[in-house]
């Protein structure tokens, strides 16, 4: 089972284009990058659980119910009686989202006492992102969790920079990202994030990743595994909403590695690497055709795609 630790929240997505000042109608969707990845994994027939915290409020109840409906293991989610469930407003400019996040919410209040470390006995991988580093106690909690997981199970990290959460504290953010990178076996990073970190003196080649995926939007992705660097072309679609495309890519990447039984040892040849990358690009592209961050297509919807059939070998899609 793949475990993710991090935020789950409500995305209020504007139904009209333009600034929030002018938008009058929003759609409520479940979101939060680690939650998006977890749901994507389950939709791709990969068992997954989420470690997180929501408010003891109607939005928190809604989110946990939605996770349960999707088939996500919810045993590791805690309800917070002090803090409200996280809420984000998403304003659409074309199909590219901008986020307004709010502070003082339940997922930033994730404490070490909230963690049942017996999950390490069941986990085939631990996945995390950067958002919870922005505040305490969640920062210390996540670092302690990945510290205890290191060496026991593979660890994946989506850099997922949210500068709005770090105003006036960019140096702290970069230090935390560098620390997180030192724990990671698998890393996903956007090309813009990669450029940002390099401009701030971070040398990603100095880290001992087993696999790194660089997403490039319309230009596809690059998968780096040891000496192998594979450029993977994108799938051309007309996007409706790109809110969860990066998370869809992450979910598909991890799911593919799980399905072809490469998570534990992470040793792939060039053909296998290309197969994994093509599948991740396909799922990310198809996810943009739906609104909301939980937009990963289900495995059953992918039967017509060769890229899916050659990866999802633990399901009925196996050719």
UniProtKB/TrEMBL annotation:
Instruction: Give all residue intervals belonging to the Carbohydrate kinase PfkB domain.
Output: 2-293
Instruction: Respond yes or no to whether keyword Manganese is given for this record.
Output: no
Q: Which InterPro entries match?
A: Carboh/pur_kinase_PfkB_CS (IPR002173), PfkB_Carbo_kinase (IPR050306), PfkB_dom (IPR011611), Ribokinase-like (IPR029056)
Gene Ontology molecular function, alphabetical: ATP binding; fructokinase activity
Kindly give the Pfam families that the UniProt entry links to this protein: PfkB (PF00294)
Q: Does the keyword Disulfide bond apply?
A: no
* UniProtKB keywords: ATP-binding, Kinase, Nucleotide-binding, Transferase
Q: Which domain of life is it from?
A: Archaea
E.C. number: 2.7.1.4
EC class: transferase
Which PROSITE patterns did the record assign? PFKB_KINASES_2
Which PANTHER family does the UniProt record give?
Answer: HEXOKINASE FAMILY MEMBER, PSEUDOURIDINE KINASE-RELATED
The UniProt similarity line reads: Belongs to the carbohydrate kinase PfkB family.
Question: Which named protein is this?
Answer: Fructokinase
């Amino acid at each position: 089972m793949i475990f993710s630790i991090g935020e789950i929240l409500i995305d209020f997505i504007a139904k009209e284009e333009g600034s929030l000042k002018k938008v009058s109608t929003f759609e409520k969707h479940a979101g939060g990058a680690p939650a998006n990845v977890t749901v994507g994994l389950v939709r791709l027939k990969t068992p997954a659980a989420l470690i997180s915290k929501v408010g003891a409020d109607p939005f928190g109840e809604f989110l946990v119910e939605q996770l349960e409906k999707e088939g996500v293991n919810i045993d590791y989610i805690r309800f917070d009686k002090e803090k409200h469930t996280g809420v984000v407003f998403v304003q659409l400019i074309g199909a590219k989202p901008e986020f307004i996040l709010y502070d003082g919410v339940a997922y930033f209040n994730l404490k070490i006492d909230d963690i049942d470390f017996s999950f390490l006995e069941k986990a085939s991988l631990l996945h995390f992102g950067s958002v919870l580093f922005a505040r305490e106690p969640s920062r210390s909690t996540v670092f302690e969790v990945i510290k205890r997981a290191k060496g026991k199970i593979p660890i994946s990290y989506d850099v997922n920079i949210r500068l709005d959460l770090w105003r006036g504290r960019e140096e702290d953010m970069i230090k935390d990202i560098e620390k997180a990178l030192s724990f990671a076996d698998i890393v996903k990073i956007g090309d813009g994030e990669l450029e940002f970190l390099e401009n701030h003196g971070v040398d990603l080649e100095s880290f001992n990743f087993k696999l790194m995926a660089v997403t490039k939007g319309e230009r596809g992705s690059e998968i780096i595994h040891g000496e192998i660097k594979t450029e993977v072309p994108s799938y051309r679609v007309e996007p409706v909403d790109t809110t969860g495309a990066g998370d869809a890519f992450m979910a598909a990447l991890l799911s593919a590695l799980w399905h072809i039984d490469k998570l534990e040892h992470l040793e792939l040849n060039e053909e296998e690497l290309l197969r994994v990358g093509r599948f991740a690009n396909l799922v990310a592209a198809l996810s943009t055709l739906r609104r909301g961050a939980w937009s990963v297509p289900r495995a059953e919807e992918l039967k017509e795609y060769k890229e899916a059939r050659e990866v999802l070998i633990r399901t009925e899609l196996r050719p």
